[in-house]
Structure formats: C-alpha cells, structure tokens
Design a protein that fits this description.
Blueprint (H helix, E strand, L loop, with lengths): L5 H4 L6 E8 L5 H16 L3 E9 L4 H15 L5 E4 L2 H13 L17 E2 L5 H8 L6 E3 L2 H16 L39 E3 L4 H6 L3
Parallel strand pairs: 1-2, 1-3, 3-4
Antiparallel strand pairs: 5-6
Helix pairs in contact: 3-4
Length: 213
C-alpha cells in the first residue's frame, strides 16, 4: 500500500518513525493487509518503525479517540506519527490530539497537530478535516481504476482477445506472487491486477478537485 507522496514525506523528514498504529477489526482481511502493506512500504522507503502502541478500534471513531486518550497519557512525547486503518478512526485520533493539546500555532506544514495523522479512504469528512489543517493525509482506493480494469477484462474476454498477462484498463497484470490472496496463487497470477492506492494530501490532484470549497 503506497501511502506517501513527495509532499507527505516533508512532514516525516527523518528515517525513524515512532508510530501509534490504530487498527480495524482484528483478523479482518483489510486490517491484516493494510498493516502488512504499510509496514512493507515504509521498510522499502528506508524507514525504521518503532511501534509505540498498536491496538484495534474496530473501525469506530469513538473507540479510536478513547484509545488515543489512554496512549497520550502513557506515551506523550514518545510518538511522532499516527497511522489509522480507515478515515473514521483517523478522525477519532485527531480529536484526541486536539483535546489533549498536542497542537501548534501554525499550519505551515498543512496541519496544526504536532503529530501527523494518516487515514485510509479519502472520505468527504476527512477532506474537510484536511481543509481545516487537522488530519494530514489519507489514501484513496481508486474505484475508477478498479472499474476500468474490470471492464477491460470483460471486454477482452467478450471480444476473444483476453489472455493471462494482458494489461487491463491501463493496469498491468501481476507478474510475481504477493502475500495477499488471490495474488498469492502462482497458477493464476497473470489474471490478477493490483490497482494502486492514490495518496491524498493537500497538494494532490484528488484533494484539489474534491475538497470542500
């Protein structure tokens, strides 16, 4: 899962992340795969990740805020990033940071929080939070890209030109297995397509086109 862009990396200039990780429902495929993808991507980019706290908020903002309140009491000053597995629990973390005074007087780096918070889903509520210089960044599951790939596979099958390994809707077929099903099955790997997540911060095209006016 690619969650960083050039502008996002400016908020995390060092190579050591002391992270609070707020999870969805434990064991849910999205929880497992998003955590694995996040940690793998950060490792690829050269970050050393120290997990300061990690627990489930079951996809709910209220549980997330309660968890963050407890973690701030225990670990204030010891973490420098919060990663949440959906936008709702990211907003719960944002509210906790605000209520506990972990803020600063300016938004030169596009957030008034001392610690940046990252979410997943690019919901309208989160875009509004970004506009208010609260939540720092999120990622979008590219529904248009997914639809284009699916439609193109169907079209190729219908017109008799499809074969495993063909690109679809501008997305190349997967060429090597990964841990996530079904792309962990080498026998069908050429029929799998991984549409990239789209990073969304205030410099991104998606934010500029969809943020509240």
């Amino acid at each position: 899962m690619r969650i960083t862009s050039t502008s996002t990396r400016t908020r995390l200039p060092g190579k050591t992340l002391n992270m609070i990780l707020i999870l969805g429902q434990l064991g849910h495929p999205a929880q497992v795969n998003r955590e694995a993808g996040l940690l793998a991507e950060l490792k690829t980019r050269g970050y050393m990740v120290n997990t300061i706290a990690r627990d489930t908020a079951n996809w709910t903002p209220d549980q997330s805020q309660q968890k963050m309140d407890a973690w701030i009491a225990a670990y204030r000053g010891r973490f420098n990033v919060v990663a949440a597995q959906n936008d709702g629990i990211a907003l719960g973390a944002v509210e906790s940071l605000i209520q506990n005074g972990i803020t600063k007087g300016d938004a030169a780096d596009r957030t008034t929080l001392q610690v940046p918070v990252f979410g997943i889903d690019a919901t309208g509520e989160v875009l509004n939070s970004m506009k208010e210089n609260k939540l720092y960044a999120t990622v979008l599951q590219d529904a248009k890209g997914q639809s284009a790939a699916a439609f193109d596979v169907i079209y190729q099958i219908a017109t008799g030109v499809y074969k495993p390994g063909n690109p679809a809707g501008g997305t190349p077929a997967v060429t090597a297995t990964i841990d996530e099903a079904p792309a962990n099955d080498a026998s069908i790997i050429g029929q799998c397509y991984l549409v990239p997540f789209v990073p969304v911060d205030k410099n991104s095209d998606y934010y500029k086109q969809n943020a509240p006016k």
